[in-house]
Amino acid sequence: MSFQFTLQKVLEMKDYEKSDAELAYTDSVKKFEEIATNLYELMKRKEVLAEENNKKLQTGLAISMIQWNEQTIEFIQKEIEELQMMTQKARIKMNEKENYLNFKAVDLKKYEKMKEIKLQEYLENEKQEEQRFLDEISVQQFVRR
């Protein structure tokens, strides 16, 4: 008779749930990285525009160009603020997914540990059964002499 874990289906379900949580976490990390990269690029663009604007101001620039440059920088700043909010939301979501993944990993580990304990008990019982059988054979051989 071979070992059969009574909660094998539950263990498999927990493993599936953990895998699903891993995928969700990976997706949330990708999303966060994507938004954070966009934010970084936009901030870099704003910095470059501000430097160019300062250089042009020192050499002399028409008022309309100054206004246009300032409007562009303000527009970029608004986009940056939106992306910062999106980044914060993505970070929160990523942390939630990570916590959920950790919960599922611990849950799976509990069932794996239970299976390990039950397997050890099964092996110990098998060993005891075998020992009893061998003892019985020894007694029968002794009695036959």
From TrEMBL:
Alphabetically ordered keywords of this record: Bacterial flagellum biogenesis, Bacterial flagellum protein export, Cell membrane, Cell projection, Chemotaxis, Cilium, Flagellum, Membrane, Protein transport, Transport
Major site of localization recorded for this protein: membrane
One Gene Ontology term, aspect cellular component: bacterial-type flagellum
The keyword Transferase appears for this protein: no
Pfam families for this protein: FliJ
Membrane topology annotation: Peripheral membrane protein
Subcellular localization: Cell membrane
Transmembrane region(s): none
UniProt xrefs under Gene3D superfamilies: 1.10.287.1700
Record-level GO BP terms: bacterial-type flagellum organization; bacterial-type flagellum-dependent cell motility; chemotaxis; protein transport
Protein family membership: Belongs to the FliJ family.
Name of the protein described by the UniProt record: Flagellar FliJ protein
Organism: Salipaludibacillus neizhouensis
